[in-house]
Write a structure and sequence with these properties.
Helices cover 41% and strands 23% of the residues. With 301 residues, it is of the alpha/beta class. The strands form 4 sheets. Strands 3, 4, 5, 6, 11, 12 and 13 form a 7-stranded mixed β-sheet that branches. A two-stranded antiparallel sheet has the order 1-2.
Length: 301
C-alpha cells in the first residue's frame, strides 16, 4: 500500500476521532481506511491507536507519529502545489476589483491585452471606488491606490502616482493662485467623498509639517473623473492622482496648483489572498500587470 495514503488515513482518524468521518473525508469506505491504518501499524510493528467500541484515540507512540505525519503530509501537499503552480497553463476565471477611474483609464487596456495573451482565462472586472473585502466577497485580486492598511493579504506594487492639486486656467484667472498650503482654506475645494480622512486633505506644508485642510466646496462626489470635469469647468481646486489628471494637465485644460510642494506619492497595488504558491491564473495575471505598468511613475501617466 502507498505510504502517504496510510499516513493520511491515520491522521484523518486521529483528527476525527474515528473511522467513519475519516472515511467520508477521504472518499473511501470505512473498511478501506481501517485496512490502511492496519497496514501502517504492521509495517511499523507498533500499535498507533487505542480502539474501543465508543472511541478511537492515539497511543503515546501514535501521538508522536501523528505530529510528524502531519508535517510530512503538509510538505507533500506543498510540493504538489509548487509543481502545479510552476507548470500549469493559466486557465479559469478571475474576479478582480478596481477603482472606477483607474479601471477605465488604465486597467481595462491591461486586462484586454492579458486576455489575448491567456486565451483560457476569463476576467470578471468589477469597478467600484469602495474598498471591497477581497476574501469575504469572493475576489481573486483587488487593485488599491494609496497607503495600504494592515491585512493578511499579499501585496505587489505595480506603480506610483502623485497626488496633484489642479484647477482650470479660468478659475486661476478669476480667483487667483494659492501661494501655500495654508492659502487653500480661502479657495473653493472640490471634495472626494471616499477619502479615508473624511472632509480633510492631509498635505505637507512648506516646512515639512502635515497640514489638515478642510474641504467643503459646492461639490462632493465619489468619483475622481467627475471631480476632474468639475475642475475643468472652473468650479474649484481638485486633489487627484496623476493617472487621472495626466491628459488634462498636458493639454492645458487644467494647471497644477502649488507645483513646487513636496512630492505627494501614492502606490498602486495588486492585493490577493495569501498562499505560498498562487494559482497559475492569478500568478500570470499579477506578473502581467507588473510588466504592463513597469516604468509608470508619478510624472509618466
Amino acid at each position: 500500500m502507498d505510504r502517504l495514503t496510510e499516513m493520511e488515513a491515520f491522521v484523518r482518524v486521529v483528527d476525527h476521532a474515528g473511522f467513519t468521518e475519516a472515511a467520508r473525508k477521504m472518499g473511501l469506505s470505512k473498511s478501506a481506511v481501517s485496512k490502511h491504518v492496519a497496514a501502517l501499524e504492521a509495517r511499523l510493528a507498533v500499535r498507533l491507536l487505542n480502539r474501543t467500541t465508543r472511541r478511537v484515540s492515539p497511543t503515546e507512540v501514535g501521538l508522536a507519529y501523528y505530529d510528524r505525519a502531519r508535517v510530512v503530509l503538509a510538505e507533500a501537499t506543498e510540493a504538489d502545489a509548487m509543481v502545479t503552480s510552476m507548470q500549469s497553463t493559466p486557465k479559469g476565471s478571475l474576479r478582480v476589483s478596481a477603482p472606477v477611474s483607474f479601471g477605465i483609464g488604465h486597467l481595462s487596456t491591461a486586462v484586454a491585452l492579458f486576455l489575448r495573451a491567456c486565451p483560457e482565462v476569463d476576467v470578471n472586472l468589477v469597478l467600484d471606488d469602495r474598498f471591497v473585502e477581497v476574501v469575504a466577497e469572493g475576489f481573486d485580486l483587488a487593485i488599491r491606490v494609496g497607503v495600504l492598511a494592515d491585512s493578511s493579504l499579499k501585496a505587489r506594487k505595480l506603480a506610483e502616482a502623485r497626488r496633484v492639486l489642479a484647477a482650470s486656467p479660468d478659475y486661476v484667472e478669476r480667483l487667483g493662485t494659492p501661494r501655500s498650503v495654508d492659502d487653500l482654506g480661502e479657495h473653493r475645494l472640490l471634495h472626494y467623498s471616499n477619502l479615508a480622512t473624511g472632509n480633510f486633505w492631509r498635505l505637507q506644508g512648506a516646512s515639512g509639517e502635515e497640514r489638515h485642510v478642510r474641504v467643503g466646496g459646492r461639490l462632493t462626489v465619489n468619483n475622481g473623473d467627475c471631480l476632474m470635469k468639475a475642475a475643468e469647468q472652473g468650479l474649484g481646486i481638485a486633489l487627484l492622482p496623476s493617472f487621472i489628471l495626466g491628459d488634462a494637465l498636458a493639454t492645458g485644460r487644467l494647471v497644477e496648483i502649488l507645483p513646487h510642494r513636496a512630492p505627494d506619492l501614492m502606490g498602486i497595488w495588486a492585493l490577493y489572498p495569501p498562499g505560498r504558491y498562487p494559482q497559475p491564473k492569478l500568478r500570470a495575471f499579477v506578473d502581467f500587470l507588473a510588466e504592463h505598468f513597469r516604468g509608470k511613475g508619478p510624472e509618466r501617466w
